Amino acid sequence: MMSDTVLSRRRLVQGMGFTAVAVAGMSFAAEPSERKLHLAGNQYPWLTYYGRENRDFNADLDASFADIAVSGLDGLEPLVGSLAQVRQYAPLLGKHGVQMRSFYVNSTLHDPAALDKSIADVLAIAEAAEKIGTKIVVVNPSPIQWGGPQNKDDAQLRFQAKSLDTLGGKLRATGLTLSYHFHDIELRNAAREFHHMMVGTDPDNVTLCFDAHWVYRGSGNSEVAVFDILELYGRRITELHLRQSKDGVWTEAFGPGDINYERLAEHLRKIKVKPHVVLEQAVEAGTPRTMSAVESHRRSCDYARRVFGAFA
């Protein structure tokens, strides 16, 4: 059963001094003064931490961006639903010294009736975001119904893979990279949706945003599945989402737990893959409550930089 925080994120998504990027290897070229790993944070965790404090991230964006800046993060990966949102965030990124090297967007790519608008919307947002430093577009092809039991059939999966490839090709033509994102839903039924998005698309057009914990949870809390998928598709990874759990429950900060991230980092180092690293350590029912959003992110940043520092 999915947590209320996951569903809240999904409903929300539906409703920047900028360093150069080498897209082929996806390693961000560091400025001479840069001495540590560039670490971004997805917006979703901030929504969950603020939510349990009865705070609204969007009510005072200036204060929210100030929290992000002092937490130790270098960047924000926002959940973008419109052009207006990019325009709203742009001055705040500059004011607080926060970069936006990637953004996350939902799309509807399995339905022919929705396809043209969905692709046009993503491309319009991407065009605006590129002007403020974005290089990676993290795309999640939405399920039929968030949290519902419905699964896409074979015809829908084939159509979605073709559509995802088309969108990736259009983004690549403008110098941007599509990084495919998934949740536990795509791991149902022998992970047929996830695997077909990989084998049914051109690696040049569709890269992978590897979210190890969604693989873990979607596979019945299996670390074996995490490293099997890493073996299969590791060289397609352009972005890494970091979340940890203990005994299957999300921890309050990123650190040791159910998934061996040290082993994961070593595997990526060996295959010479240096992804964009994004913290997505959120809270759910059962997560301990001992830290503020800022303190949790500070601790998460410290641990993530120790484990993935070789990617700097």
The CATH homologous superfamily: Divalent-metal-dependent TIM barrel enzymes
Report the sheet with the most strands, covering strand number, pairing sense and barrel closure: 8 strands, parallel
The computed structural class is alpha/beta
Helical percent range?
40-55%
- Termini gap: 37 Å
Strand order of the largest sheet: 4-3-12-9-8-7-6-5
- In the predicted model, the low-confidence regions spanning at least 5 consecutive residues are 1-34
Helix count equals 11
Instruction: Specify Rg, calculated over alpha carbons.
Output: 18 Å
CATH class: Alpha Beta
What is the average of the pLDDT values? 90
Question: What is the string of helix and strand elements?
Answer: HEEEHHEHEHEHEHEHHEEEHEH
CATH topology: TIM Barrel
Second CATH tier, the architecture = Alpha-Beta Barrel
Provide the β-strand percentage band: 5-15%
Number of domains: 1
